[in-house]
Amino acid sequence: MEKRRLSFWEIWNMSFGFLGIQFGFALQNANTSRIFDTLGAEVDKIGLYWLAAPLTGLIIQPIVGYFSDRTWTKLGRRRPYFLAGAILSSLALLMMPNSPTLWIAIGTLWIMDSSINISMEPFRAFVGDNLPERQRTLGFAMQSFFIGLGAVVGSALPYVFTNFLGISNTAPKGIIPDSVKWSFYVGGIVFFLAVLWTVIKSKEYSPEELHEFEKQNKEESKEVDDEDGCSIKKQQNIGLFLTILGLVLSYFVHDLNTSSDNSHKELYILSIGILVAGVLFIIVSILRKQNKRNGFTIIITDLLNMPKTMKQLAWVQFFSWFALFAMWIYTTKAVTGHVFGTNDATSKLYNDAADWVSVMFTVYNGVAAAVAFLLPVLAKRTSNKITHMLSLCTGGLGLISIYFLSDKVGLLLSMFGVGIAWASILSIPYAMLSGALPSNKMGYYMGVFNFFIVIPQIVAGTILGFLVNSYFNNEPIYALIIGGCSMIIAGLLTLNVSTQRKININD
Question: What is the pTM (predicted TM-score) of this model?
Answer without folding.
Answer: 0.76
